[in-house]
Amino acid sequence: MFTLRRHGRAPEGKSYMHATVVVERGPFALVRHPQYLGYMLFAATAVLISRHWAVVVLATAAVVALYRHTLEEERDCLRRLGEPYGRYMKRVPRFNAFLGALRALRRGEPSS
Predict the structure, then answer these.
(1) Model pTM?
(2) Which residues contact 81 (CB under 8 A, 6 or more apart)?
């Protein structure tokens, strides 16, 4: 959220979600959706901590909903940001932070 706000060039008075450029710094250099990945990891952690069937059901539903939302968001970003976002999608994985870190190291790019 802070990285998008700082580097996304959102119009004055608009939310960070209205970024006008592709942000490839900080966590966005490793994965395309760091916030959603964090939410998914939180859901998985809640399952492991609680070990209750209701939490498993709710966490599974949350992860599925978040994943579907990322697909919609990527379509919107492609529509709004065009080919630069398409190139970003090819370079940076959706959720795999390990692969993203490996790719960033190979490109020689710092994550911040």
Answers:
(1) 0.79
(2) 20, 21, 22
